[in-house]
């Protein structure tokens, strides 16, 4: 099978298109023909060497799969050849999804929502699972609460807006002015142009100084230390960014704030919850750009570029017929 293999840590040019053996499913595993995958910040972090102790080179990376079951191993009862499935491979535990075939444990695979194309489904598995855990499990966002979502036009942010609205929250988000209408179309109630206005001033103005119940951090920087300035009492901050620099959180004490740090855990339950929202019309991922498997280096370079112009996700069409 063809696969994009990471030969060394570094820039996008570190990938090489190779022929590698097709995997064989063992007991409890499913062999999936990969139709589509996608690009996430985690993917370029792995590629550039942020986690060298967890990735053994050469490696097949990638963290989203939408495809069709090709074969099942002994003991598999949930799936059969021909089933359309979606899932996030177990991160740092075996080959990833930048290949024509992938093997995964039956327990982490879900049935793809029928209303989603493979391109759309592949854009949602990792970010959808991450947002679900961040908002429903860790932040415990409730009906009638308010949330500030940083980066609402991005791959994670546009999904977070939709999930927060499905829960019944009032949604504030930061985007560039060019993405106002896109963010509103996702369900945002208040959009803030972070290039022209300090979001702390905007939130306090819009809430009469009360603040929001939850801050969802997708951008890093000094978000952790500034979040108390926009939090209501007993507010929660959830971050999906691995921030290395120390930050002063003394202001959080006065707000009785709690902080949560999320690294996605794979399971079918999250996928089934997301699928229910998709089928009810409450969640729809946005595909901003599509690249071929052989062009993964270009896709990585674009996602890493400042002001890349992408709304939603960059998707990789592993099946050539999916490229229009």
Structural notes for this entry:
With 324 residues, the chain is an alpha/beta fold. The protein has 2 domains: 2-124 and 285-322, Medium-chain alcohol dehydrogenases, catalytic domain (Quinone Oxidoreductase, Chain A, domain 1, Alpha-Beta Complex), CATH 3.90.180; 131-261, Quinone Oxidoreductase, Chain A, domain 1 (Alpha-Beta Complex), CATH 3.90.180.10. 26% of the residues lie in helices and 26% in strands. It has helices spanning 41-48, 118-122, 125-138, 157-167, 180-186, 199-206, 223-226, 250-254, 268-279, 296-304, and strands spanning 2-6, 15-19, 29-39, 65-72, 84-87, 101-105, 110-111, 146-150, 170-175, 190-193, 212-217, 231-239, 258-261, 287-292, 313-317. Strands 3, 4, 5, 6, 7, 14 and 15 form a 7-stranded mixed β-sheet that branches. It has a 6-stranded parallel β-sheet with strand order 10-9-8-11-12-13, with helices on both faces. A hairpin with an 8-residue loop joins strand 1 and strand 2 (15-19). Helix 3 (125-138) packs across helix 4. The longest helix has 14 residues, at 125-138. It is globular.
């Amino acid at each position: 099978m063809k696969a994009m293999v990471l030969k060394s840590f570094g820039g996008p040019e570190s990938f090489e298109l190779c022929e590698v053996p097709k995997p064989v499913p063992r007991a409890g595993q499913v062999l999936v023909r990969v139709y589509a995958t996608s690009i996430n910040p985690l993917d370029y972090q792995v590629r550039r060497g942020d986690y060298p102790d967890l990735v053994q080179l050469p490696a097949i990376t990638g963290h989203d799969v939408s495809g069709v079951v090709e074969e099942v191993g002994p003991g598999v009862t949930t799936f059969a050849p021909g089933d359309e499935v979606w899932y996030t491979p177990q991160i740092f535990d075996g080959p990833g999804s930048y290949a024509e075939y992938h093997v995964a444990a039956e327990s982490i695979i879900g049935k793809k929502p029928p209303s989603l194309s493979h391109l759309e489904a592949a854009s949602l598995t990792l970010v959808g699972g991450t947002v679900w855990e961040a908002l429903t499990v860790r932040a415990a966002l409730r009906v009638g609460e308010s949330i500030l979502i940083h980066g609402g036009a991005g791959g994670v942010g546009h999904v977070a807006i939709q999930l927060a609205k499905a829960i019944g929250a009032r949604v504030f988000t930061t985007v560039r002015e060019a993405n106002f209408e896109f963010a509103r179309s996702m369900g945002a109630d208040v959009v803030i142009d972070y290039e022209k206005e300090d979001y702390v001033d905007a939130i306090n103005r819009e809430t009469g100084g009360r603040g929001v119940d939850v801050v969802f951090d997708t951008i890093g920087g000094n978000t952790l230390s500034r979040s108390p300035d926009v939090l209501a009492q007993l507010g929660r901050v959830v971050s999906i960014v691995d921030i290395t620099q120390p930050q002063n959180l003394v202001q959080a004490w006065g707000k009785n704030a709690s902080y949560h740090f999320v690294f996605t855990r794979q399971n079918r339950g999250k996928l089934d919850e997301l699928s229910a929202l998709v089928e009810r019309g409450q969640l729809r991922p946005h595909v901003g750009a599509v690249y071929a498997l052989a062009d993964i280096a270009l896709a990585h370079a674009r996602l890493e570029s400042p002001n890349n112009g992408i709304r939603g996700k960059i998707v990789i069409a592993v099946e050539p017929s999916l490229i229009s």
